[in-house]
Amino acid sequence: MERYRDPLVVYWRPGCPFCVKLRLGLRFTRLRYTEVNIWRDPDAASFVRLVADGNETVPTVTVAGHPLVNPSLAELRRAIRTHAPDLLDRPR
User: Fold this and answer.
1) Taking a C-beta distance cutoff of 8 angstroms, is the pair 84, 64 a contact?
2) What is the pLDDT of residues 8-33, one digit of tens each?
3) For residues 79 and 16, what is the distance between their CA atoms, to the nearest angstrom?
4) Cβ(18)–Cβ(12) under 8 Å?
5) Which residue numbers delimit the Glutaredoxin domain (predicted)?
6) Spatial separation of the C-alpha atoms in residues 61 and 7, rounded to whole Å
7) Which has the closest alpha carbon to 36: 28, 27, 45?
């Protein structure tokens, strides 16, 4: 169902303070990622509901296809080291 094939995808929505915190933290990293506003993309909203027990819990992030629901930046970094370590070496 997930159509975004980038190794790191952040699903978010406007007004979400947890999204703001994670997205701001990501901007200070050298990681390359795609952001998807679930209010503008119904398929993305469906994907988030699928991996978040029917809820539109954001941020939801996929790391090489592995979903994380509302991860901290530290949890996200651990997932990257596990599932997509090559992202850590890529220039932005």
Assistant:
1) yes
2) 999 999 999 999 999 999 999 989 99
3) 22
4) no
5) 9-66
6) 10
7) 45
